[in-house]
Fold this sequence. Notes:
The structure holds 2 protein chains of 2 kinds. By secondary structure, chain A is α/β, with parallel strands linked by helices. Chain A has a domain at 1-31 and 42-79 and 197-263: P-loop containing nucleotide triphosphate hydrolases (Rossmann fold). Chain A contains 10 helices and 10 strands. In chain A, a hairpin with a 2-residue loop joins strand 4 (59-64) and strand 5 (67-68). Chain A starts with 5 loop residues before the first strand and ends with a helix. By secondary structure, chain B is mainly alpha-helical. Chain B has helices at residues 2-42, 52-62, 67-90, 98-136, 139-145, 150-189, 193-203, 206-232, 238-266. Helix content of chain B is 86%, strand content 0%. Chain B has one domain (51-266). Classes of the chains: A alpha/beta, B mainly alpha. Chains A and B meet through helix 2 and helix 3 of A and helix 4 and helix 5 of B.
Amino acid sequence: MRAAPLSISNLTGGYNGQPVIHDCSMTIGHGEVVVIMGGSGSGKSTFLRHLIGLKPPMQGDVSLFGESLYAVDELTRLRLLKGVGVAFQSGALLSSLSVGENVALPLVEHTALDREMIDLIVRMKLDFVGLLGKEDLLPAELSGGMLKRAAVARAIALDPRLTFLDEPSAGLDPVIAAALDELILKLRDSLGMSVVVVTHELESAFKIADRIVVLDRGYIIFTGSVADIHNSPNSRIRNLVNRIAEDEDFDPEMHLRRLVGEA
Amino acid sequence: MHRQLHIPAAVITGIGARALMIIAFVGQAAGLILKSFMLLVRGPRIGQPVRLRHVVQEIVAAGVHALPVVILMAATIGIMLSIQGIHSLQLFGAETQVTYGLPLSVPREFAPLITGIIVAGRSGSQLASRVGSMRLNGEIDALTVMGISPVRFIVAPALFGLLIALPILVGVASVTALAAGQLYVEATIGIGAEAFWADVLTVVTLTDLAHCFGKARLFAVLIALIGIVMGLGMAGGATALGRATTSSVVTCISAIIAADTLVALML
């Protein structure tokens, strides 16, 4: 039996000894698109940093393809990370390299392919994300949407079996956001890739997710399909799905008093 | 009474915090040197090779691009030392001995020091700002998750590039300073090139050259690591980036002068 691309067991993590993520466990299957959702401050970004090897957990473990990510030395961790692709929210393209050089970087560093083959793969990946012809531009010359798509092209350059996408459609216009959603489904369907998407864009999540995981104040409070989330009896999940601002203890008078410094 | 007790405590706490910061800084720098050399040797076998083209890029940036300013400053120093040497030695009627004074001071002291300061101003600040902005933009995290060790991609090329470029620059600076000094000496007291260079070759020993290039290597390590560690330790936005860049130049130059003094005292 093949090991799961990603397995998280009892993960607790945070900053300066203060836990932000509490006892989270989940597994991502082969060829599965899992969307991690949650409001601002729910711990999504911290959770992602633990999953991609950038932040050792306080407790628990993260395994990639059956190998622990944090019970190994740094060089072994780097070897494990070669098998995954990550597209950051900001793109995080190397600003001194052109778009083409950025996409080529994992190929140059981790394969013995010749220059011609690498150039061909770079063009294929850029074509895949609709950026063919932009190879020679610098990251500073790209729009926000183009940066995100270039980051996706770099993340899939080595055809990883597992890809993490951090807020891929945040801040994009609806047309480009829809195109990115199609792209994620194409990665799953044509390459059999497992994809973990961190987002708070509901429309996008409902369109692409095989499974949705909802984080709230660092806890996983829901795991299920798109249909399950719509039928959830949990009020916090319903509020999230129906975009209802929640503050159960909100007292308008007390709020005004606080604003004028009387409370 | 309370106030009198609080002030020394705050001072001692401040000194302690600063000392801990310096220890952490030195520890991080030592770790980066060890990792860089380990990756240089083991890198190709473990899929993390230090690329020659990256080292060459650093040599070009730190060395070739610094050549004009190093040559100009070295020539100026050579002429200044000749002026001062002739002026001082004239008091004893020994101005012709300047042909011994210059080669005694230039390769051992002035060429490494002035070149080190110039390279610290150029490359130290450039490294701090480059690494700092890479950190701010998430580029270092991006390298890590691509399975590329940031040490072998950023630190090792900068360190090895400077270790190669700085001794060459110091050699060029030594020859330039002596050549400029010779021109001034010939113009003022009429000692020709042949006699001047014969005295230079008589005076300069292999030990002097070892001092010269040893210091160059030491300064290269200081510049590379101070620039990189300051860039890596940067937190905040554009203001912090500017502060880290300025601070790296000041720290590099201070460290170079301190190290130069220590070497002079020890050897």
